[in-house]
Amino acid sequence: MAKMEVKTSLLDNMIGVGDMVLLEPLNEETVINNLKKRFDHNEIYTYIGSVVISVNPYRSLPIYSPEKVEDYRNRNFYELSPHIFALSDEAYRSLRDQDKDQCILITGESGAGKTEASKLVMSYVAAVCGKGAEVNQVKEQLLQSNPVLEAFGNAKTVRNDNSSRFGKYMDIEFDFKGDPLGGVISNYLLEKSRVVKQAGGERNFHVFYQLLSGASEELLNKLKLERDFSRYNYLSLDSAKVNGVDDAANFRTVRNAMQIVGFMDHEVESVLEVVAAVLKLGNIEFKPESRVNGLDESKIKDKNELKEICELTGIDQSVLERAFSFRTVEAKQEKVSTTLNVAQAYYARDALAKNLYSRLFSWLVNRINESIKAQTKVRKKVMGVLDIYGFEIFEDNSFEQFIINYCNEKLQQIFIELTLKEEQEEYIREDIEWTHIEYFNNAIICDLIENNTNGILAMLDEECLRPGTVTDETFLEKLNQVCATHQHFESRMSKCSRFLNDTSLPHSCFRIQHYAGKVLYQVEGFVDKNNDLLYRDLSQAMWKAGHALIKSLFPEGNPAKINLKRPPTAGSQFKASVATLMKNLQTKNPNYIRCIKPNDKKAAHIFNEGLVCHQVRYLGLLENVRVRRAGYAFRQAYEPCLERYKMLCKQTWPHWKGPARAGVEVLFNELEIPVEEYSFGRSKIFIRNPRTLFKLEDLRKQRLEDLATLIQKIYRGWKCRTHFLLMRKSQIVMAAWYRRYAQQKRYQQIKSSTLVIQSYIRGWKARKILRELKHQKRCEEAATTIAAYWHGTQARRELSRLKAEARNKHAIAVIWAYWLGSKVRREYRKFFRANAGKKIYEFTLQRIVQKYFLEMKNKVPSLSPIDKNWPSRPYLFLDSTHKELKSIFHLWRCKKYRDQFTDQQKLIYEEKLEASELFKDKKALYPSSVGQPFQGPYLEINKNPKYKKLKDAIEEKIIIAEVVNKINRANGKSTSRIFLLTNNNLLLADQKSGQIKSEVPLVDVTKVSMSSQNDGFFAVHLKEGSEAASKGDFLFSSDHLIEMATKLYRTTLSQTKQKLNIEISDEFLVQFRQDKVCVKFIQGNQKNGSVPTCKRKNNRLLEVAVP
Ligand SMILES: Nc1ncnc2c1ncn2[C@@H]1O[C@H](COP(=O)(O)OP(=O)(O)O)[C@@H](O)[C@H]1O
Ligand SMILES: [Mg+2]
């Protein structure tokens, strides 16, 4: 929405006319009315072509916000309503983009808003130009130079509470990118008379009041000041306080600004000391003192103030005191001292104060320039801002006004020159015929003032330098002679008698017809002010000051540099500086801001037509408009022109295809605008009369209304149609959805009913089949039952017949009948259920058994007889069979195993079997013998030559040959003996010699005894009374007891056919010679390890300790 409100031309929503070139009719009244109308609507800016007229609103308007800056940024000058920002933007852009140096010339009378305008321009440029820390510092310094200069150079006047009392021109320097680099300030003619005297209702320069209000007690003490305005003669009392101005706060602002600009602390201090000195100078008073020669000599009334000034400035008090009392004139190498009277002393004092202050001001400007000057040497583009005093017409106009107005005259000159030049250049550029423009050229007035031979300033200088008595009157006389014939010079006493009777022209005055009106100047003070004299004694006293700043301000006081030539007069100085300024401005592209003050009351909303009329006149605004529209009042580039008016012609609306110029031609032809009213330039159309433009505007407005209606109509139609189409589309979509939904629902209904019917039918069919099947089954069952019954009946009938027959016949016949019956039953058994079970049982049993055997075939364990594995039993009823089968299998595999044996092996096993039968489970030693093979002849007597004799003595086959321990019958100790068993005998031989010790025939052996324990002791009992038994029974111990006992048993059996008695008991009796000794086996202690020990306890007991 906000975007749509952006104006695209100055002509839109215009109050009055934004550009006064368009005024119709053009006269003073319409110009003022237009300004008033716009002023009343808060439009304080109005254009005359590219010149901005600004009317001071005396209140803050919301038109300088950052948003406004953005609005005007990079917009064409005529695109938006008139604004100072538009001009600033135009200037800045052509500086940046077209490389043209710019100057902004701000004119207008005191209080019209020039200084504010210059600040606005600077702040706008600061806002739109480059950013960055360095650039910002430069900007800040440039902007902060204002408060410093305003404090020292501005004062409250009746016109303006913050009136600039000096002319200021500031060059802002930019680099090629448009970033600010620095600046240079030039100042012109400070109104220094204000330092010592102010008109009623006015004030001295701000800084004095600011210092006294804002300085700390400490600072005031240091400066030897008191916080009381009334203490100082130089400060007017009636308006020391200004409404809405806080001097104390401003003092802080200024000091802060000074710091930002780059003043050192000691510099600030020095400056304030000079200010204090000036203030205190005003308090020095003089009194006359009669001298011998009858002349009055002035004396300082109260030396206290002087003393303080001297302390503050480091001047020798006597030097200064002398400078106020004497004046030294040097002529022809002679020094002549004259005394000063009181009036001269006061004049000297004031001159010193004025000079001190104005030189301080110039020093400040230079010091600021030093800070803000561009640091680089690169080529710079320059934008100059000129804020200079405007025309001043007071009741009493003096030298200052004359100078000021001269300056304005010069500015007007360059304004005319540049405006015309620009206008002319544009015409040539655009290839439009140049028509001569009638306008007033003020060069003639400038000439009147500045002509080197007979100009007013030259005359004044001549008077000032002339020897003899020189007064303001002699100066006026001179003027009357020289300038009398000049058209713009008026004087009562001139040779020309035109004004002889003009009472409005007093005798002591002359009048100049400035381009902006007539000004009456009082000649009084012209000579003095032009001379601007400061007695040399004073400047020398100042140069001698200990205060470095003051010393530097008075270089001419240095006696080494004494210059007898008079310094240039104020008038010639000013003329020279104005000439330099003009030269400077001419090289730049000018931009004008002309300020107008709407009332004298500094009040908002008041538009004093008389006052404005006066300003309009002397600013030459009417002239300005005339020059501007001398040829053509209005011009516009073809593109925006065509864009703005294309709707007025069918061929150009809505789009024109060809070049814009052709479009505009077609447009103007179509509208039948008279050909003399416009002219085609290269890029612009020039319109001679504003009326034509307004006609175009009216037509445009009318046409826009029609177009708006048309657009509205089309839009409404389009909107309705779109709405309708949307509704139709929605309707179709809805219908489609609904139909789909309805069909879906119907389909689902049909589907579910079909399913119900289907299931009913299927159920019905199934039941029917079931019924049929049941019927069929019943039929079959019935047949069986009937058959059974029938057979039963048959059988019973037969039986009863047979029974009957039997009763009648023989018993055999009865049996026969039974047999027959059973035969019949057997035959029909299959028809009876009773037999099925048995048959199935038998069959099943048969099958199980069969399966069992078949499985067993696969599961039989290995053939090893010691293999303990046997498959588990599958059925309980096969338990006995399974066990039986196991034993059968075992026996069979044992047999199989045995069948492999050789005869010898058989013998060994027979022996082992015999041992098993004899000792198994009886003797604890037995199990350890099972694994040992029975070797029999352990001692290989045949082979060992040691036993050759023994071998030779025995002829029979040796069954056992082994070393045993024979237990000594008397003490139980043992001796080794070779134990030999042959087929018929038992022999004992010495182990070493092999000599036979005893020989017992087997028939004499009756019994063998041994313990049940794990020992190898055994006793061989002999037949009583036999030859061998003379010594008694033998008691041995052997490692192979089981084998020995077994072999002894077997040999005895085979030889004697008698079973040898083997007694196994832990207590048995043996016959030792005559004694029967009991051999007792006890569980011995482990003293001797695992070897059993034998001990004869007494003649009845022999104890064997078994481990
Ligand atoms: N554009 C403006 N908007 C608001 N007030 C303004 C404007 N221009 C000037 N003024 C007011 O007018 C006073 C005088 O303006 P100033 O620029 O000092 O005048 P000049 O420099 O022409 O003597 C300012 O102090 C301010 O109060
Ligand atoms: Mg000003």
- Largest beta sheet: strand ordering: 23-22-21-20-26-25-24-27
What is the general shape?
Answer: elongated
Strand content: 15-25%
Arithmetic mean of pLDDT: 86
Count of runs of 4 or more consecutive helical residues: 33
Helix content: 40-55%
β-strand number = 31
Query: What is the gyration radius calculated from CA atoms?
Result: 78 Å
Q: Strand pairing plus helix content: what structural class?
A: alpha+beta
Bound small molecules, deduplicated: adenosine-5'-diphosphate, magnesium ion
Task: Report the uncertain regions.
Answer: 1-7
Give the biggest beta sheet.
8 strands, mixed
Q: N-to-C terminal Cα separation, in Å?
A: 127 Å
Verbal overview:
Helix 6 packs across helix 9 (247-261), helix 14 packs antiparallel against helix 15 and helix 24 (638-645) crosses helix 25. The two termini are 127 Å apart. This protein has 1107 residues and is α+β, with helices and mostly antiparallel strands. Strand 21 and strand 22 (985-990) form a beta hairpin. Strands 23-22-21-20-26-25-24-27 form an 8-stranded mixed β-sheet. The chain has a 7-stranded mixed β-sheet with strand order 1-2-16-3-12-6-7, sandwiched between helices. A 4-stranded mixed β-sheet has the order 28-29-31-30, with no helix packed on it. The structure holds adenosine-5'-diphosphate (ADP) and magnesium ion.
Topology:
Layout: H1 2-5, H2 28-40, E1 45-48, E2 51-55, H3 66-72, H4 84-98, E3 102-107, H5 114-128, H6 133-153, E4 154-155, E5 163-164, E6 167-174, E7 180-188, H7 206-214, H8 217-222, H9 247-261, H10 265-281, E8 286-290, E9 296-300, H11 303-313, H12 317-323, E10 326-331, E11 334-339, H13 342-372, E12 381-387, H14 399-430, H15 443-450, H16 456-465, H17 472-482, E13 489-490, E14 509-514, E15 517-522, H18 526-531, H19 536-543, H20 548-553, H21 570-586, E16 589-596, H22 609-619, H23 621-628, E17 634-637, H24 638-645, H25 660-670, E18 678-680, E19 684-687, H26 690-808, H27 811-828, H28 833-859, H29 879-898, H30 903-919, H31 926-930, H32 948-953, E20 958-967, E21 974-982, E22 985-990, E23 996-1001, E24 1005-1010, E25 1017-1022, E26 1034-1037, H33 1041-1056, E27 1061-1064, E28 1067-1072, E29 1075-1083, E30 1093-1098, E31 1101-1106
Parallel strand pairs: 2-16, 3-12, 3-16, 24-27, 29-31
Antiparallel strand pairs: 1-2, 4-5, 6-7, 6-12, 8-9, 10-11, 13-14, 14-15, 17-19, 18-19, 20-21, 20-26, 21-22, 22-23, 24-25, 25-26, 28-29, 30-31
Helix pairs in contact: 2-22, 4-5, 5-6, 6-7, 6-9, 6-13, 7-9, 10-11, 10-13, 12-19, 14-15, 14-21, 16-17, 24-25, 26-27, 30-33
Bound molecules: adenosine-5'-diphosphate and magnesium ion.
